[in-house]
Design goal:
single chain; mainly beta; Protocatechuate 3,4-Dioxygenase, subunit A; five-stranded mixed sheet; four-stranded antiparallel sheet; 34% strand
């Protein structure tokens, strides 16, 4: 039995000439369906509000992209709109042993096979004491450094291109 697509939503089987519905994509056009949105953890103090845009390789917005961070105090998840903008409010983390305070961000778009993971470093911390940050080139480190803005921090995520954000392996996903 040979199957050929007719309009992207159905396929024609040559043996029977009947239309057979093909499966939809896993993440589909409604990527957020069933995925709870939680753009803020309400901390007592140490609040960190991060805003920014997720951009494609040409510098244009990457709509319907999930930006997520997970911390002991709770997780936050934000989805970009058509302009690629996101906003999360979370707890500014303590410095773990050998590291500077940072947020680990997971980024997922419908076009990605695996999540992209990066670290957001705060400009007002001693990042030169972080065992990962010091192993990066100055150019790589700059792509992981947020900017201080009124009301919090700004961190733009470039998925590819000249300004691509430095992404890290995700333990377990990449066989590491």
């Amino acid at each position: 039995m040979t199957t050929t697509a007719d309009d992207g939503n159905r396929a024609v089987t040559s043996a029977t000439d009947q239309l057979v519905r093909t499966p939809r994509t896993i993440l589909g056009p409604y990527f957020t369906l069933g995925m709870p949105l939680r753009s803020a953890v309400v901390p007592a103090d140490g609040r960190a509000t991060v805003t920014g845009r997720v951009l494609d390789g040409l510098g244009g917005p990457a709509p319907m992209t999930m930006v997520e961070t997970n911390q002991p105090e709770g997780w936050t998840r934000s989805f970009t709109g058509m302009d690629g903008a996101y906003a999360i409010t979370t707890v500014k983390p303590e410095a773990p042993s050998g590291r500077a305070p940072h947020l680990t961000l997971k980024i997922v778009t419908a076009a990605m096979i695996r999540p992209a993971v990066t670290c957001l470093y705060f400009p007002d911390e001693a990042n030169d004491t972080d065992e990962l940050f010091v192993r990066l080139s100055p150019e790589q480190g700059a792509t992981m450094l947020a900017r201080t803005v009124e009301g919090g921090y700004e961190f733009n995520i470039h998925l590819s291109g000249e300004s691509e954000t430095t992404f890290l392996g995700w333990p377990g996903l990449l066989g590491e």
